[in-house]
Amino acid sequence: MRDDGVRSAPLARGSRHWLLVAVLALITLLGSLPTRPAMAAAILNAAATTAVGGLGICSSKQGKDLYNCVADVLDRMASSIGAANVPETQRALQTAAAGLRAATSKSQAISAIARCQSVISGALKQVRAAGGRYVPGWGDTGLTSISSVLSRAIQLIQSKG
Question: Coil, strand, or helix at residue 139?
Fold first, then answer.
């Protein structure tokens, strides 16, 4: 009974069924929409912080051993950012790592990282154009930390390579 004393009619069995179907359809639709990882920047920043530590370990190496060590750092960083749903960023890092492993000279090693840094810089421009928001496939402002790791890697190879 409603507050005004008028008895309300219960929903017919068919009406309840359609209401349930509509709610389930809405939940399914919302669940299938692409979502941005809530913590993309945190994941990218944490991976970059870990990578800086890895580069510190690489600083005791030279030449091909150094290139391989830096490549391992980039591969680990690419793996650790998977939860941020940034496959393009991962691919750029993995390509740089492969280039480092194939490098036989300091200039080739630096070039492999510089190409990756250029790609990440382009993605950062997209992020900035989007007001710092998440750009699908790439990430968000956390890309700044990734770019910093790449700069450190280049400096390390320039000084030790």
Answer: strand
CB-based contact 55:70 (threshold 8 Å): yes
Task: Round to the nearest angstrom and report the end-to-end CA distance of the chain.
Answer: 83
Question: Which of 70, 71, 81, 72 lies closest to 48, judged by CA?
Answer: 81
pLDDT per residue rounded down to tens, the chain (161 residues) = 455 555 555 555 555 555 555 555 555 544 443 444 558 899 999 999 999 999 999 999 999 999 999 999 999 999 999 888 899 999 999 999 999 999 999 999 999 999 999 999 999 999 999 998 889 999 999 999 999 999 999 999 999 87
Q: Which two tokens stand for residue 60?
A: 């005791």
The b-or-e profile of 74-92 (16+ CB within 10 A means b, else e) is bbbbbebbeebbbeebbeb
Give the whole-angstrom CA distance, residue 19 versus residue 99.
57
Tell me if 134 sits within 8 A of 140, measured CB to CB: yes
CA distance 145 to 94: 17
